[in-house]
């Protein structure tokens, strides 16, 4: 298993604190430089937000958000071992009162969530096609506030995301990763075309 057994919170209240990394679990944590670049972009917008961390893995995105002043974070993953890892990391930082952990398979587990959310980070397995199933369902439910931001991490060689319910704010490439910043459109409004480039 590639990757460190410990991860470090980059900034905020818990700056420098370590959380448990993937160890032997079958996880592909977001690379440190991708996470740093992402939070450099988001830095001014995290305060007071309600965060949804889909395919949460170690929970690093949601926990970093809480460290930087997010109001609350919900972590969703399908693997029971991963859920236990997230719960240990939440306990180690003492943020249980601002955290919710949900176990379930996407896209069906979206029905277990209680929104609305201001910001969603979605880091599915790179070879999975789950993105095309989750994004429309995420938009069709009362899970997102108006103009909510959904960030999807993809392999830069992946097929473009179809975004009929979203506007593309930006695409940001870092090494082999590509971050798609998608802005939820108001209900009833759809983009023209698929957003493919």
Write structural notes for this entry.
It is a single chain. The protein is an alpha/beta fold. It is built from 4 helices and 9 strands. It is globular. The chain starts with 5 loop residues before the first strand and ends in a 13-residue tail after the last strand. The model is unreliable at 192-197 (pLDDT under 50).
Explain briefly what this protein structure is.
With 197 residues, the protein is of the alpha/beta class. 22% of the residues lie in helices and 29% in strands.
Query: What is the tally of helical segments?
Result: 4
- Helical amount: 10-25%
**How would you describe the shape?**
globular
* First-residue to last-residue Cα separation: 34 Å
Indicate the proportion of strand residues.
25-35%
What is the H-and-E element order?
A: EEHEHEHEEHEEE
Question: What is the topology?
Answer:
Elements: E1 6-8, E2 18-20, H1 32-42, E3 50-54, H2 60-67, E4 72-77, H3 80-93, E5 99-103, E6 117-122, H4 131-140, E7 144-155, E8 166-174, E9 177-184
Parallel strand pairs: 3-4, 3-6, 4-5, 6-7
Antiparallel strand pairs: 1-2, 7-9, 8-9
Using brief descriptors, characterize the structure shown.
about 200 residues, globular, two-stranded antiparallel sheet, single chain, disordered C terminus, seven-stranded mixed beta sheet, alpha/beta
């Amino acid at each position: 298993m590639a990757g460190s057994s410990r991860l470090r919170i980059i900034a905020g209240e818990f700056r420098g604190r370590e959380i448990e990394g993937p160890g032997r679990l079958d996880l592909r944590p977001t690379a440190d430089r991708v996470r740093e670049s992402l939070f450099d972009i988001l830095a001014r917008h995290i305060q007071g937000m309600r965060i949804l961390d889909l395919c949460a893995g170690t929970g690093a995105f949601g926990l970093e958000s809480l460290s930087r002043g997010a109001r609350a974070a919900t972590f969703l993953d399908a693997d029971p071992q991963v859920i236990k890892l997230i719960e240990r990391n939440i306990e180690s930082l003492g943020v249980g009162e601002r955290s919710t952990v949900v176990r379930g398979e996407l896209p069906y587990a979206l029905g277990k969530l209680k929104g609305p959310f201001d910001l969603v980070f979605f880091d599915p397995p790179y070879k999975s096609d789950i993105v095309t199933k989750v994004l429309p369902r995420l938009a069709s439910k009362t899970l997102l506030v108006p103009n909510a931001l959904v960030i999807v991490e993809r392999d830069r060689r992946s097929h473009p995301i179809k975004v009929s319910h979203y506007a593309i704010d930006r695409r940001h490439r870092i090494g082999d990763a590509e971050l798609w910043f998608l802005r939820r459109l108001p209900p009833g409004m759809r983009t023209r075309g698929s957003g493919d480039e």
